[in-house]
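Sample log: Helix-turn-helix transcriptional regulator.
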Amino acid sequence: MVLRDVTPSSVPSGDGPDDVLLEMMRMHAREHLADPHLRVEELARRHHVSVRYAYSLFARIGTTPGAYLREQRLLAAQTMLSDPRCARLGMPEIAAATGFRNLRTFERAFRRQYGMTPGSWRCEHCHPGSTAATLKQEMPAR
């Protein structure tokens, strides 16, 4: 039932059905990071498994479904913060674009994961000549 809507070319390679299902769940999570409603329960429902079974699948890679979602969202945020094309986006927009409903939750999770605030990350990873570096120079000191 899990594979009913999947074409053979879109099935990731794996050692068995559980590996294929886990990879499909991981792929779904990466493709829908911006959806703030994507939670463990929704991920399990979408793949026609119980929440408990979803936890057992993710345990195979040493994590939980929730931790995997958070990690992927933070990696996406980190990428956006380092991308000069996203330099004009504020923290609330980046938080929303990566599936965080609350700016404070985003900032706290980012600091816990990377040891610095999203704003500090952006400043340290701006490339000279990028829009973010220019904006930083234009902003008056507080």
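Observation: Residues 16-65 form one domain.
Observation: Residues 1-12, 130-142 have pLDDT under 50 and may be disordered.
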